Amino acid sequence: MTHQVGIRDLGLIEYRSAWQAMQHFTNTRDAGSEDEIWLLQHPPVFTQGQAGKAEHLLFPGQIPVVQVDRGGQVTYHGPGQLVGYLLLDVRRLGIGVRELVSRIEQSLIELLAGYSVEATAKADAPGVYVNGAKIASLGLRIRNGRSFHGLALNVDMDLEPFRRINPCGYAGLPMTQLRDLIGPIDISEVADRLRDQLVQQLGYAQQKTLAGGIEAYE
Known about the structure:
Elements: E1 5-12, H1 15-28, E2 35-41, E3 45-48, E4 65-67, E5 74-77, E6 81-89, H2 90-93, H3 97-113, E7 120-121, E8 128-130, E9 133-143, E10 146-154, H4 178-182, H5 187-201, E11 207-209
Parallel strand pairs: 1-2, 1-11, 3-4
Antiparallel strand pairs: 2-6, 3-5, 6-10, 7-8, 8-9, 9-10
Helix pairs in contact: 3-5
């Protein structure tokens, strides 16, 4: 077990605001800074990773496209999708990047198991899958041993915009969500369960809820 982690529940927040705040937090933190996990949702937006190829963005329409500094290809964020940003001192945690990805995936797998949904990870395609359909995406950036960006879990959203892209660079990749697997679901309940799984899988001794938004990091 290691340090305490702070949990910040941000609700619905514009993508660029969250991205800029993550960058600022990561750039200004020091060896004594506490790790944080931000849980939130975004208005509709496509985000294109550093290695993203334009051909995977098929017809975005009126949904904005943002080029960002995480790994991976293009994905979609929208209301009803639970996003978790992991602002972690990976060196202090004593784990490598591949191990970090595996622990995030395991958090999601255990979360879904709690709803009697059997999910798996793929060694060659980060994320979490149910019967071959992708239910959660991962995209991280490590800077000076600290991580930002994170995961996106489809809970109760409009999946249509995923058909406007090749999700994560895979043409025709089917997408699914928790609502379609188990019926109506409260995203706040899912957020609570995801928080607990992340805290456990990442080895934190304790967690605390952080008040306020991200104004100080913008």
